[in-house]
């Protein structure tokens, strides 16, 4: 049994913003959204960000209307204990599954690009161990880590853009706006659900934010800064790779691999590895914390730390067996936007409507 000295968890608005940035970036630098549009992926990211902000306005409004209470308490008050518990259980399962998806991104990327001979399960255990350690110490520690790691990731992305500048070609973006409206809307919706709409999990964290009045602005700032970093990375990939950015499994790694300074500084995929390791760590830690906190509320337990190890083992099991290979993981991104918005905006939106009808707000 691991004993951790517990204290009241709190997170500042600045830490919340940095955590949202890291969460938004997550594995998006490795599996960027909107890739089906090839050279028009940047358009999908911009529109997806706008749609994602609408999601955020809805679920932050719900939280503010009920004075930043626990999401579980809000749902029970609006829908009653039975339906409220069902909806919250769906939310907790979503957090668990999303954590397994991010972990699998870790495992696939590292096993196919960095440690080819290492068993994928061993990679998963190593990655999850650091996440478990951070989660044991609470959301405040995750927030403080984010304040350090996010600026480092921004710097790493900026360095790759500078080093690849000579390899960029504007012709890869032409024709600039020739895209079917249907394809653009589908890709944009996909970008809204991954990664921007996933910030709905922060409903679990809102009650712990020091200044509740600035929660909405903190989250929106975080998503916008995170979206900007993703946009810069995608523009870099398109300018360097062209159509290959659609074909490559990991376009960011493929682009950075082209860095060559005097045949001395080459093969800098380690930068992408660093980005995934740091931002993926933040995202996994937040999701594991939300999963355990939510499960402890469902089971009426005093300490979420008591369920961290069992939940982490379950997440590792799902991550290892849900996909047979990397391409299965990539193809799943086509299905994800079909169900994720129900949790991201459907339940909070329905809750607002029912609360209004019942005159609870």
Protein topology:
Blueprint: H1 13-25, H2 41-65, H3 71-113, H4 120-137, H5 139-163, H6 181-193, H7 215-241, H8 244-247, H9 251-256, E1 260-261, E2 265-266, H10 269-298, H11 308-321, H12 326-357
Features:
361 residues, mainly alpha, Amino acid/polyamine transporter I, two-stranded antiparallel ribbon, 12 helices, 2 strands, globular
Strand order of the largest sheet: 1-2
Tell me the count of domains: 1
User: Based on the structure, what is the oligomeric state of the protein chains?
Assistant: single chain
Largest sheet: 2 strands, antiparallel
CATH architecture designation: Up-down Bundle
In round numbers, the mean pLDDT is 92
CATH hierarchy class name: Mainly Alpha
Count of DSSP H/I helices: 12
Portion of residues within helices: 55-70%
- Say which CATH homologous superfamily is assigned: Amino acid/polyamine transporter I
Number of strands: 2
Low-pLDDT ranges: 1-6
Beta-strand content estimate: under 5%
Q: What shape does the CA trace take?
A: globular
Helix-strand pattern, N to C? HHHHHHHHHEEHHH
Q: What does this protein look like?
A:
The chain contains twelve helices and two strands; from the N terminus they run αααααααααββααα. With 361 residues, it is mostly helical. It has a two-stranded antiparallel ribbon. The N terminus is likely disordered.
Describe this structure in a few short sentences.
With 361 residues, the protein is an all-alpha fold. The protein has one domain (13-322, 329-352): Amino acid/polyamine transporter I (Up-down Bundle), CATH 1.20.1740. 69% of the residues lie in helices and 1% in strands.
């Amino acid at each position: 049994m691991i004993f951790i000295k517990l204290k009241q968890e709190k997170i500042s608005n600045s830490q919340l913003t940095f955590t949202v940035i890291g969460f938004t970036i997550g594995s998006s630098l490795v599996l960027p959204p909107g890739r089906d549009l090839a050279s028009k992926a940047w358009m999908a990211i911009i529109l997806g960000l706008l749609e994602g902000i609408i999601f955020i306005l809805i679920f932050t409004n719900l939280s503010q209307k009920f004075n930043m209470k626990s999401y579980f308490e809000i749902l029970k008050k609006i829908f009653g204990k039975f339906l409220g518990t069902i909806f919250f259980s769906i939310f907790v399962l979503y957090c668990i599954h999303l954590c397994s998806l991010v972990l699998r991104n870790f495992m696939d990327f590292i096993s196919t690009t960095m440690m080819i001979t290492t068993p994928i399960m061993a990679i998963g255990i190593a990655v999850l161990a650091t996440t478990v350690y951070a989660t044991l110490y609470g959301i405040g520690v995750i927030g403080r880590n984010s304040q350090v790691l996010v600026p480092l990731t921004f710097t790493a992305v900026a360095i790759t853009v500078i080093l690849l500048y000579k390899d960029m070609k504007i012709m890869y973006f032409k024709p600039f706006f020739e895209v079917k409206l249907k394809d653009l809307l589908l890709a944009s919706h996909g970008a809204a659900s991954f990664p921007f709409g996933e910030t709905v999990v922060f409903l679990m964290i809102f009650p712990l934010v020091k200044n509740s009045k600035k929660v909405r602005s903190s989250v929106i700032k975080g998503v916008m800064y995170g979206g900007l970093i993703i946009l810069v990375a995608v523009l870099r990939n398109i300018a360097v790779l062209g159509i290959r950015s659609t074909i490559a499994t990991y376009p960011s790694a493929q682009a950075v691999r082209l860095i060559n300074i005097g045949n001395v500084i080459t093969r800098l995929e380690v930068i992408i590895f660093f980005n995934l390791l740091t931002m993926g760590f933040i995202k996994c830690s937040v999701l594991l914390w939300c999963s355990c906190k939510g499960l402890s509320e469902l089971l009426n337990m005093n300490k979420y730390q008591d369920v961290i190890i069992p939940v982490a083992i379950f997440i590792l099991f799902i991550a290892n067996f849900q996909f047979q290979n990397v391409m299965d993981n990539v193809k799943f991104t086509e299905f994800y936007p079909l169900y994720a918005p129900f949790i991201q905006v459907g339940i909070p939106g329905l809750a607002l409507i029912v609360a209004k009808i019942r005159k609870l707000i």
